[in-house]
Design goal:
Blueprint: E1 11-17, H1 23-38, E2 46-54, E3 64-70, E4 76-78, E5 82-92, E6 95-105, E7 110-111, H2 112-119, H3 123-126, E8 130-131, H4 135-146
Parallel strand pairs: 1-3
Antiparallel strand pairs: 1-8, 2-6, 3-4, 3-5, 4-7, 5-6
Length: 148
C-alpha cells in the first residue's frame, strides 16, 4: 500500500503595484464585485479583495492566489492566500484586462522580507509571479501563511 498526498489546487503569485484605474475600468470592477459578493462562501470571517490584471494569464475558479503588492516606499506586502471566486475579463484593444476577485481569510499582511526569512528562501522567489510548480515550496508557503 502506498499513501498519496492530497493534491493542492493551483497556487499562483500575483505581483501587483498600486495604480489609478480609468472610469471604464472602475465601472467594470464595480459590476464584477456585485457578482463576486454573491459567490462568497465565508461572508463573515473572510474578506473579498480584487485586483486588475493585464495580459494573457487566465485565472480560474478554484485557484489559490497570493498577492504580493509593491507599495513603493511603504514596502512590499504579502497577503494570505485567497480563493478565486470570480473573474471578469474584457478586451482593451489588442490586450486582455481582467479583474480577479478573491475571498481570503481576514488576517494581516506580512512584509516580503519576513516571509522569505520564515520560509528560508530568497525574496526573489516571492517576487516572481505566476504558477508555483515546486510542490515543497508550495506546501511550505501555504503552511507558513496559514499560521500568520
Amino acid at each position: 500500500m502506498t499513501s498519496k498526498r492530497p493534491s493542492l489546487p493551483r497556487l499562483l503569485l500575483a505581483q501587483l503595484h498600486l495604480e489609478d484605474w480609468s472610469e471604464r475600468d472602475q465601472a467594470l470592477h464595480d459590476a464584477g464585485m456585485l457578482v463576486a459578493k454573491k459567490r462568497r462562501e465565508h461572508p463573515r470571517s473572510f474578506e473579498l479583495e480584487s485586483f486588475r490584471y493585464t495580459g494573457k494569464w487566465h485565472y480560474r475558479l478554484g485557484d489559490v492566489v497570493i498577492q504580493v503588492t509593491d507599495e513603493g516606499s511603504s514596502g512590499v506586502f504579502v497577503t494570505p492566500p485567497g480563493n478565486v471566486r470570480y473573474v471578469r475579463t474584457r478586451k482593451d484593444g489588442s490586450r486582455l484586462v481582467s479583474f480577479v476577485y478573491l475571498e481570503r481569510p481576514a488576517r494581516r499582511r506580512r512584509q516580503v522580507k519576513s516571509l522569505a526569512h520564515a520560509l528560508g528562501c530568497t525574496q526573489k522567489q516571492l517576487r516572481r509571479g505566476g504558477l508555483i510548480r515546486d510542490p515543497l515550496f508550495k506546501e511550505a508557503l501555504m503552511n507558513t501563511l496559514a499560521v500568520a
